[in-house]
Structures are given as structure tokens and as C-alpha cells.
Amino acid sequence: METLSFGKNSQGKETSLYILENKNHAVMKVSDHGATLVSLLVPDRDGKMQDVVLGYDKASDYEGHTCYFGATIGRNGNRIGKAQMVIDGKPCSIAANENENNLHSGPNGFDRALWEVKGHTENSITFSHLSREEEQGFPGNLQVEVTYTLTDENAVEITYQGKSDKATIMNCTNHSYFNLGGHASGSVEQQELQILAESYNPVRDAKSIPTGEIAPVAGTPMDFREPKPIGQDIGADFEQLKFTGGYDHNYVLSSHAGEFKVMANAYCKETGIAMEASTDCCGVQFYAGNFIGDQEGKGGAAYCDRCGFCLESQFYPDAVNQKGFPSPIIQAGETFTSKTSYRFYVK
Ligand code: GLA
Predict the structure, then answer these.
(1) Splitting the chain (347 residues) into consecutive groups of 10 residues, what average pLDDT does each group show?
(2) Annotated catalytic, 312?
């Protein structure tokens, strides 16, 4: 493993970039700033290496934006309505950072933390972080670990482990934006996506809190059971897509967490790069990068709306407040683990 400087963060602390390579010369670069996946170089059909995730060149660039490129999100991914909840009978409120709601655990999210490197092997690295009770406002001190492994099958496997001294939420995800044409290649709307889900969670309005329904995708533009270009139906006259300015919804993979299976497949004709994504989580947020905006990414790349798509494995949004959804709560002393992988190949 090679280690490079990733610059100083806003607290003046040095951050690092760790580089791991597998036997196919696929390369994964991760940072202790936000336990972030910064780059992922995989071969295209001509054997040329393509970096298939969006990112920035240094830690301070991540701090200057709110896109969460490649970051570890926690302790709760996605939204909590009114930034309030009841855990173990006790009301609890956290920061409202998107309208009156909480998104991705607020301003002190795991994406802004400087993680410790707990250890590494030839093909993996484990970051750890103690999330103190007072930092985000959730109950309990949560000890959390994230391990990134680059396998010789060109898969990035991400495992999460958490244990708390009080009942709390443990719902981490990775916020990578994929572009199978290469991170600097522009819109992903022509790239094909399949999501192996029969249903999704409709949202109430533009603030994206679920109604609580689990609605079938059949007969709607939300249907990705068969592969189709991301952009094919994104502009359809369909209220759910109007609310969110394009796909930004949780797809229901299962009624419970724990079963590891393929959740999605994606493909780019130009490069021939395909991705198979798997998880043991019960849901996945498909976000089409609707609000990336025009900005400069790694190596001066020009990023724009919809130049990357996210498949954020998670508990359903606002699960802590929705009785019909699987619960993201772990009990004191319980160890929770979950795993998500993104495998790349050429076809
Ligand atoms: C998630 C949300 C989106 C957006 C991104 C970050 O995917 O569902 O609405 O906030 O994070 O920009």
C-alpha cells in the first residue's frame, strides 16, 4: 500500500490518500478524510484504465462541497423527518440541515470526520471512528469501522461494523457517484441500469420524506427491473420524479436486512465497463446525480448534473420514524455489520 498526502483539513490536520492495487492492476484510492473512496481505476474493453468514481484532489475540496462524493455516510444515511425521533423511549433531536429535516446525519457527519487507520492488508484497509454521543445528537457512543477491500475480481467490497453503549441508529452507506464512461466523461443518462426491486418508497413532496407506502414500480417510470438507460424515463410526467428533479428514491430490496444479493447492474456501451452491485441491506437509494451542479473535480474534470449516479445501500429513509419499515436501531452492546460490493467487468 502506498500512502500520499491528501492535504490538510479545515482543522489543520494532515489527511492521507491510501493506494491499493490488485493483480489485474485495478487501483483503489481511499482517504482517511471521511473514509472516502476517492478513485477507482478499472480496465475498459481496450484495456485502458478508467476512473469510474467522481471525487476531488484533496480533503479541503471535499469540505467545500455538499455532494458527499465517495464518502462514508453515518451514523444515519438519508433523511430523518423533522430531524427528530424516539429511541428507546427517549425523544431525541439532531441538526436540521435540509429544510426541517436531517440529511446524512448533519454537519458533523462521518463524511467530515478524520478516521483512524486501524490496519491494512495487501488488498484491504480498515478505518475506525468513535462517534461520540454529543457530536451528532444520536444516543450512545458508537464505535464504527469501515473496511474497503479491492478483490482480484475487480470488486470493491465495503463492510461496516458498529457497536454502541446505548441503543442507537447504525445505518451507514457509501456515497460513491459512478460513471462507467470515466469520471470526466459527462452525463450518465445513456448508461444502462437495472435495479432488482419490485417496489420503492414514494415521497410526500419535494422534501423527500417517504409517505410510508411501499409502491410497485410496475407500470411506472420507476421500473428498472429490466435494464434501461438512466435518462430514458427520467423526464416523464410523473409526480414522484417531479418532486425530486429526477430519480432520488429508495428501492425496496427486502423486508429485512441480512441477505447478501445482487441489487443492481449497470453498463456503459462506450467503454464496455459493467458494474454488478450487491448488498445485504434492505434498501438502496438510487440518486441520479440531479443536483451535482457545474463544478471542478479530480484533475480539473468538468462535472455537471447527472454526470454520476449513486446506489446507496441503506435502511429505508426516515426508517426510525416509520413503523412499517425495518428498524435501523441497534441495542446497547450489539454488534451490527453490513456489506455492499461493486464489481467491475467488461462486456
Ligand atoms: C442522497 C439524497 C439526495 C442528495 C444526495 C447528496 O442521495 O437522497 O437527495 O441529497 O444524497 O447530494
Answers:
(1) 98 98 97 98 98 98 97 98 97 97 97 98 97 96 98 98 98 98 98 98 98 98 98 98 98 96 98 98 98 98 98 98 97 98 98
(2) yes
69, 103, 318: residue to mutate for ligand 1 pocket, most atoms within 8 A of CB: 103
Taking CA atoms, 16 is separated from 9, 32, 34, 110, 296, in Å, by: 10, 6, 11, 16, 21
Q: Find residue 65's DSSP bridge partners.
A: none
Closest CA to 55 of 302, 295, 305, 298: 298
How far apart are the CA of 316 and the centre of ligand 1, in A?
13
Q: Is residue 298 within 8 Å of 120, Cβ to Cβ?
A: no
CB atoms within 10 A of CB 3: 12
Residue ranges in the chain assigned as alpha helix (H): 59-63, 133-136, 239-244
pTM of the entire predicted model: 0.98
Q: Which atom of ligand 1 is nearest to the CA of 98?
A: 10
Using the mean position of ligand 1's atoms as its centre, give its distance from the Cα of residue 258 in Å: 24
The answer to whether 309 touches 191, Cβ cutoff 8 Å, is yes
